[in-house]
Each structure stands twice: as structure tokens, then as C-alpha cells.
Design a protein that fits this description.
six-stranded antiparallel barrel, Thrombin, subunit H, single chain, 16 strands, 376 residues, elongated, 3 domains, 10 helices, alpha+beta
């Protein structure tokens, strides 16, 4: 009996001291890939100068348009990543994913007008050359044109006494047309000269935001689920945004939802030996971290078996300074808004930028800032 009790006691003690190992990376990816979505964004900018409105689409071939009808098939398209944060259709991503900033608009606007200005000057010279040629060979035309401008009637009298002959009417009409066109283009050139290129401010217009799910087929825009912008961070240094599906539900409900808790099961099983992480400083130098995202948007995500996210890994390479975390995960365009998780699947950061001229170092917004933004 004593032997039995001793064995039982040892078993209980062993059970109490049992610890859980972190899941392997493949299981982490399987658990959370359904909670990460590809974000598709259609947009353009509106620039108003005096009474004229320009529609600027930086990713289109023509870039500038003067009416919305021409713009409709030329919207700029951007991609990013987001992750599901609630069962109410809410998704966290970067602000710049759904409100893209175009820092080159001034240069593009100036170059567009510079090109147009040079073309107009060539047209003005061409019109002037034609005008001078007519005046040289048909000097009477200018006098009759001046008469018309001052309200006089046409009256031609050739060397043979024929009045108002057909040829002279045509020549004068052509002369009028050239002068009108020249005046028109001079006004356009003067308009361009008066533009204050330094102080133009483009207005961003979002046309459509949609999401695609991992392991689904997207062959047309209608295959996406439409979203709306709930809010963006007011802090310039916190590049975060919250969007929500229009229906407030997900067309493909995820297996797991990202949260701000510590997913380490040892905390509940053995709280004396395992403490909950400090959300202000959730990782240490050289800790393993992983990213689930959509590098290059549909370019890499679109496979024969549908949309597939990518799973990449690295290590924490710099201490958290409260505003950003540096890690050795390579990122590409489209990975903005991707969740960075630790070995337990805990949210560590939201990827938002990479180190210039490097594919090997990237920055994330710390989870504490993400929590504060979401709960505000």
C-alpha cells in the first residue's frame, strides 16, 4: 500500500511539473494562415488647380486624366496584408495599405505639365509659321481678318473685279482658325506658367477595398469580400488601420483569431514557474519570430491551387524601443500589415517597413501599440 501511494504521489508530482513545448512552425502556420488575408485596394488622387480638376492614378500608364470616365479603367491598385482580430469582421493592417501615400506626385505633376508645355510651345510656333506664310502670300487676308474682329463684313475684290470669291473665303477662314488656335494654346501655356507646383495637395479617393482568403480562388474582383475603413491611427509614427468587412462577418471564418493574450499553455498549467509575458516588451534579442503574409500581393499568392500566403522566419535583432521592433525577416511589397508572431503564436508586432536597400531586416509596430490602437 505504501508502495502504491509513493508511486501515485510521484505521478502527481511529475504531472504538476509537466511542461509544454512550443508547437513546431508548420503547426503555427496551419493554425493561423486562415486568419491572415490579402488586401486589395483601388484608388486615385484628385488634384484641383484653379477651376480645373486632374485625376491622378500613379500606377497607370497615362497617370493624369481630365474626366472620371477615362479614369475608370485606370485606377491604381495596391496590395497589402491584414490579420483578423475579432469575429465581427475586423482586420488590422497598416495605414499606408488602405491610405497609400504617393510622395512622387509633385514631380509627376510637374513633369506632366513640362511635357505638355513643350508640346504646346511647338504647336504655337507651328501655328505662327502658318499664319506668317498666309500673310506673306495673301496680304489682304490680315486686313479682312482685322475687319471681322472689329465687326466689319467680309468683302473681297480680286484683280479681275470678282468679289467674295470662294478661294479667298477659304483662305481667310483658315487664317481665322489658325489665329484662334494660337490664342487658345497661348492661354494654356500661360495657365501652366501660373501653377504653383510646390503647394498642390492631392486628395486621396478610395474606390474599393477587398480581401482574399488563403486557400481560395480569386479570378475576378467579385471573388473578393468588400471592406470599409473603420479608422486609422492619428499618431503619425503608428502606421495602423482597422478595416471591417461590409457584412461584419467573414465569408471564410478563421480557425483562430489573433488576440493580445499569452498563448503559452504553461502559464495556466504551472503559473508559479511560468509568468505571462510583458506585452510592453514581449520578445528578447535572438528570439525566433515568424511572419505570415502576402509578399508581392497576387503575383506570388496566386497559385494553381488558389491564393496561398507565405510563411517566413527570422530573429529579433534589436531591442524594442517602444515604437518599432527590428527583426531579420525578409519582406517585399505586399507584406505590409503582416502579423509577426513568436514561437507560441503570440502577436509580437505588425510589419510595416523594411530597412532601405536591404531585404534582410524589417520593422514592426510593437504589439502594445497595436493593442492600444485597437482598444481606443
Amino acid at each position: 500500500m505504501k508502495y502504491f501511494l509513493s508511486i501515485l504521489l510521484l505521478g502527481l508530482l511529475f504531472k504538476c511539473s509537466e511542461t509544454f513545448d512550443p508547437p513546431n512552425p508548420e503547426d503555427l502556420f496551419e493554425d493561423y494562415k486562415g486568419s491572415v488575408v490579402l488586401i486589395y485596394n483601388e484608388y486615385f488622387y484628385e488634384i484641383k488647380v484653379q477651376d480645373l480638376t486632374y485625376y491622378y492614378s500613379p500606377n497607370s500608364e497615362e497617370k493624369f486624366f481630365f474626366n472620371r470616365e477615362d479614369l475608370e479603367n485606370n485606377y491604381s491598385i495596391g496590395f497589402g496584408t491584414g490579420f483578423i482580430i475579432s469575429n465581427k469582421g475586423e482586420i488590422i493592417t497598416n495605414r499606408h495599405v488602405i491610405e497609400p501615400e504617393n510622395i512622387d506626385y509633385k514631380e509627376a505633376f510637374f513633369e506632366f505639365h513640362k511635357q505638355k508645355y513643350n508640346q504646346i510651345l511647338e504647336i504655337i510656333v507651328e501655328k505662327q509659321d502658318s499664319i506668317e506664310m498666309i500673310e506673306r502670300f495673301f496680304p489682304y487676308v490680315k486686313n479682312n481678318y482685322d475687319n471681322v474682329r472689329y465687326g466689319e463684313n467680309y468683302y473681297y475684290d480680286d484683280d479681275y473685279g470678282n468679289s467674295n470669291n470662294e478661294f479667298r473665303v477659304k483662305i481667310t477662314a483658315k487664317y481665322e482658325e489658325l489665329n484662334y488656335a494660337k490664342t487658345h494654346y497661348i492661354k494654356i501655356a500661360e495657365y501652366i506658367e501660373q501653377i504653383d507646383f510646390e503647394n498642390i495637395i492631392p486628395k486621396l479617393n478610395i474606390v474599393y477595398i477587398g480581401i482574399a482568403y488563403d486557400d481560395t480562388y480569386v479570378t475576378k474582383k467579385e471573388d473578393l469580400q468588400e471592406c470599409v475603413i473603420i479608422r486609422t491611427s492619428n499618431n503619425e509614427d503608428v502606421d495602423l488601420a482597422l478595416i471591417q468587412t461590409k457584412t461584419k462577418i467573414f465569408n471564410k471564418p478563421p480557425q483562430k483569431i489573433f488576440n493580445f493574450s499569452d498563448n503559452n499553455p504553461n502559464i495556466k498549467e504551472n503559473p508559479k514557474e511560468h509568468k505571462e509575458r510583458d506585452i510592453r516588451n514581449p520578445v528578447r534579442i535572438n528570439d525566433d519570430v515568424f511572419m505570415i503574409g502576402y509578399n508581392r500581393g497576387f503575383i506570388l499568392a496566386n497559385t494553381r491551387e488558389g491564393i496561398k500566403s507565405q510563411f517566413t522566419s527570422g530573429k529579433i535583432s534589436q531591442e524594442n524601443d517602444g515604437e518599432r521592433i527590428l527583426y531579420t525577416i525578409p519582406t517585399l511589397e505586399g507584406s505590409s500589415g503582416s502579423p509577426i508572431i513568436d514561437k507560441w503564436g503570440n502577436l509580437v508586432a505588425v510589419n510595416f517597413a523594411k530597412l532601405s536597400n536591404s531585404q534582410g531586416f524589417s520593422f514592426g509596430i510593437p504589439v502594445y501599440e497595436v493593442k492600444k490602437f485597437y482598444e481606443e
